[in-house]
Amino acid sequence: MVEELDDSDLGILNDMLPWASFVVDSRGRRFGKQYSSNKRSNAAQLPDPRIVDFDRRFPMNGHTVLKLGCFEGNHTVTLCERAERVIAVDSRIENVVKTIVRCTMFGHRPFVHRLDLEQALPDDQTLDCDLLHHIGVLYHLTDPVGHLHMICPKVRQAVMLDTHVAPENSTLREDYRVHGKIYRYLNFAEGPRSSPFAGMLDHAKWLRETDLIQVLHDCGFDEVDVAERRDERNGPRVLIYAARSSETSKT
């Protein structure tokens, strides 16, 4: 549908919502807007290579994928092209609306709704899935361990997790306890609610990679593969694929 819009209607669509990212159509026209001159200033890559690799490792065809932190729907569009069913959630209502619009303009109808990931999961929202797409969310949360223990039981097969972590050799002076275990963390200050790239609260807890891997094991994922480590502006970041064994996934 984006391709069918004339320039005037596309301009109206781009001005209608507070976009902070954009994609381009076959004519090079922008759908959405860049956030600033140095952040989300390039077109989002469709498909994202991480989704391509996730699909290669764990084929999405015929399966349900849960997308946490749908932002503006760029990843959700690609997931809809590959999976049988996509559930997409975000803590910000504006991101829910933008994802619905973006996906609709690409001819997709995922189930999108608001879910505050800092809160307990509501009983009336079904999040059961085969695969979990978890990119750019964990490092915005005040209780990342509790969150994983809460969401992972919903996942039957595998999760792709891309998140910042605390520097492994750093001295971490703060800790908190979850299910009887103590986790040290880096306290990372979050921006205001008005920032589309901030969490919902004033800080986040960044775990060490080793602790994060152990949490995934504790959540029942027998196979944990750190596929990529990279240094970014705000600190180290990892891309992890975690899968249940074939026997575990049947239960």
Describe this structure in words.
By secondary structure, the chain is of the alpha/beta class. The protein folds into two domains: 1-43, no CATH class; 45-250, Rossmann fold (3-Layer(aba) Sandwich). 25% of the residues lie in helices and 30% in strands. The chain has helices at 7-16, 49-57, 74-82, 93-105, 144-151, 209-218, 246-250; strands spanning 22-24, 30-32, 64-68, 85-90, 111-114, 129-135, 155-164, 174-178, 181-189, 203-207, 223-232, 235-243. The strands form three sheets. A seven-stranded mixed β-sheet has the order 5-4-3-6-7-12-11, sandwiched between helices. The longest helix has 13 residues, at 93-105. The model has no long low-confidence stretch (mean pLDDT 95).
Which descriptors apply to this entry?
about 250 residues; globular; single chain; 7 helices; Rossmann fold; three-stranded antiparallel beta sheet
Compact overview of the structure:
The chain is of the alpha/beta class and 251 residues long.
- The stretches of 5 or more residues where confidence is low (pLDDT under 50) are none
Looking at CATH, the homologous superfamily of the largest domain is Vaccinia Virus protein VP39
Question: What is the gyration radius calculated from CA atoms?
Answer: 18 Å
> What order do the strands of the largest sheet run in, or round the barrel if closed?
5-4-3-6-7-12-11
CATH architecture of the largest domain: 3-Layer(aba) Sandwich
Q: What top-tier CATH class of the largest domain fits best?
A: Alpha Beta
| Shape field | globular
- How many discrete domains? 2
Helix content: 25-40%
Q: How many helix segments?
A: 7
Average pLDDT confidence is 95
Count the E strands: 12
Structural class of the helices, strands and pairings?
alpha/beta
Could you tell me the CATH topology label of the largest domain. Answer: Rossmann fold
What is the rounded distance between the termini?
41 Å
